[in-house]
What does this fold into?
Amino acid sequence: MALAEASVPRRQVATYAVERPERRVGRMASRLFFLVLLAGVTVVFLAPLAWLVSASLKTRSQVFNGEWVPDPVMWSNYVDVWRAAPVLSWLQNSLVVGLLGAVAVTLSSAAVAFGFAYFRFRGRDVLFGLVLATMMLPGAVTMIPVYLIWNELGLVNTLVPLWAGNLFGSVFYVFLLRQFYLGLPRDLFDAARIDGANYLQMWWRVALPLTRTALIVVFVFEFKALWTDLLKPLIYLYDTALFTMPRGIKTLIDRFGQGGEMQWELVLAATTVLTVPLIALFFFAQRYFIEGIATTGTKG
It folds into this structure.
């Protein structure tokens, strides 16, 4: 230690002693700048949500007055919108569609992804490339044929077409989950085969528990997509009692957002009711969600 200190010139040691506080100040300044920037971006992203909640608590004449704090606070807007429309029924329908569709696409996509990751056969990469190529096919191309299929099955004006298509998986989720499966040690599956497990047991008992974070990411993504989807309910649903929440809000906009009876406070209150469950879902799943997003790019 003494030899090492002796080999360093005194002038250079003094320079290092002066530079250390400067580096510390520089790191603190850069960190402070990053925190301020992050706070600013957060405010920008939260501003629309804050305006939505604020406007939903205003009187009819104050909705677009530009003020952030409602005066007076009209909690009765939420009571009025529940009286004006079957909001509870719409929420139940959205919940059924979201849960069934998210579970269906998670399990089906996981099964397909496991097949592409585990089995080794000639032409596997070519076949997987063809599967990925279907992502380039616009949904509008298959919209009419798919509608005709559900119509022939007698399932139009039911909730089935809104979620049952997810039983066949999703290309994006297949790709996402395959990346996770490729990162699993193959020795785990070889050991399971030696213990007598079949392919289905290997997938269910070994692969799925080890990719829990990825499955939660897929579930959250799909639940959000189904919860906010308006196009399919517009196409397949005619009965008001079967409407999902986005379809119901479209009805409220047609009723209260134009013409002589403009009551935007009711529309915004219903929109807030639609938004709150998604915030709660992300709040409870954020640890797994962030972990899954962060590790997706490191697999494979």
In short: Residues 1-6, 13-18 have pLDDT under 50 and may be disordered.
